[in-house]
Design a protein that fits this description.
This protein has one domain: Aldolase class I (TIM Barrel). 47% of the residues lie in helices and 10% in strands. It is built from 13 helices and 6 strands. The protein has helices spanning 7-11, 17-25, 41-50, 62-67, 78-88, 104-112, 128-134, 150-160, 175-184, 193-202, 204-224, 230-233, 242-250; strands at 32-36, 55-60, 93-97, 117-119, 165-169, 188-190. Strands 1-2-3-4-5-6 form a 6-stranded parallel sheet, with helices on one face. The longest helix has 21 residues, at 204-224. GO terms for molecular function: FMN binding; isopentenyl-diphosphate delta-isomerase activity; metal ion binding; oxidoreductase activity. This is Isopentenyl-diphosphate delta-isomerase, FMN-dependent.
Length: 261
């Protein structure tokens, strides 16, 4: 599980328990800390220590910041800052988009700065520009469609063929969505909204049943493709059509490569 931005917990110790509870309730699980990619490296290390994190997400949310009346406007030096955080951290660093997707160009720059794990956070899930619109943000509804769709971002990054790990997130809602992302080349998938809605609206027992059901369906899809496991599903062909295929073609990525596996 990844927590949200810990900046508030660093600035206000009275709310730290809303982060530390994750490790308290899940002492043996994988827990990821989260701060802005532009944060002071010492604060990044403090975020890791706060929850005994196994990894650190550095989030990239430039569109959201620009939509916020009180948001950041200066992003100079971010890549250099990332290099410093990577050099000081004793846990893996993950570049995390928050709903607008990474392009291949961005991943190339981040990879050269020392990042080799990417959570693509593509368009299709939570829309932080829209959220800021509800707070009377700077964009006033004009840029709600901004971003790279998750499938396009994933395929662009896979096509780089870098020695990296890719987490597909952003609109992943079903086991079938997860299976397709894994087949395209993701190593992991991230899901939040469906779990949270069921937890809040129907309770813990229904959430547990939903998780079990999705694990079963993911196993079923894997079996139906003739794959023995998640690793092997990556070897199965995927047919990419319509808008996604057009996007990739215009970006110089051959969508047919997935159908020829």
């Amino acid at each position: 599980m990844a927590v949200g931005s810990q900046t508030i917990g660093i600035d206000d110790h009275n709310v730290r328990d809303s982060f530390t509870v994750v490790r308290e309730k899940n002492p043996d699980g994988i827990v990821l800390a989260n701060v802005s990619a532009g944060v002071n490296p010492d604060i990044a290390l403090e975020a890791i220590e706060m929850i005994g994190a196994d990894g650190l997400q550095l989030h990239f949310n430039v569109p959201q910041e620009l939509a916020m009346p009180e948001g950041d406007r200066n992003f100079k030096g971010t890549l250099k800052n990332i290099e410093t955080i990577v050099s000081k951290s004793n846990v893996p660093i993950i570049a995390k988009e928050v709903g607008f997707g990474f392009s291949a160009n961005s991943v190339n720059k981040l990879y050269n700065s020392g990042i080799n794990i990417f959570d693509i956070g593509g368009k299709g899930g939570t829309n932080f520009i829209n959220i800021e619109d509800q707070r009377k943000g700077m964009f006033m509804g004009e840029l709600d469609d901004w971003g790279i769709p998750t499938a396009c971002s994933l395929a662009e990054i896979v096509d780089l063929n870098y020695p990296i790990q890719i987490i597909a997130s952003g609109g992943i809602r079903t086991a079938y969505d997860a299976a397709k992302a894994l087949a395209i080349g993701a190593d992991l998938v991230g899901i939040a909204s469906p779990f949270l809605k069921i937890l809040l609206q129907q309770g813990v027992d229904e959430l547990s049943s939903f998780v079990d059901s999705n694990i079963y369906k993911l196993k079923a899809v894997t079996l139906m493709t003739g794959a023995k496991n998640i690793k092997e599903i990556k070897t199965k062909p995927v047919i990419i059509t319509k808008d996604t295929a057009e996007w990739l073609s215009l970006r110089g990525v051959d969508p047919y490569q997935w159908s020829k596996k």
